[in-house]
Model the fold of this input.
Amino acid sequence: MKEFPIHLITVLHVQWLIFPTIRSGCIFIKDERGLYTDDPKKKRDVKFIPEIRAADLFKKDLDDLIIERPCLEILQNSEVIEKIQIINGLEKGNITKALKGERAGTIIYRQ
Done:
């Protein structure tokens, strides 16, 4: 499987690029590794969250999320989407890993 060209991600300003996958999920390609306890671009003392349930993420009530809360609500209410994976599209190989179902970034589970 080929990697997506980096200029594609740059043109989209590394914002929302969503791929429905065979594994009943979506991949969000961003310019950060995934979900953190706060914005890693603004603060140093943050922790990476490799996986979490949407309900648990809402309970944490974090001030700054890499994903908009309405997307989490859609995930929770969906009958077809089981997870959202957030990856850094600027790191070589991440898109391919995510499309293959391999570990990359953060996975937010519906339940």
In short: The first strand starts at residue 18 and ends at 21. The first helix runs from residue 6 to 11.
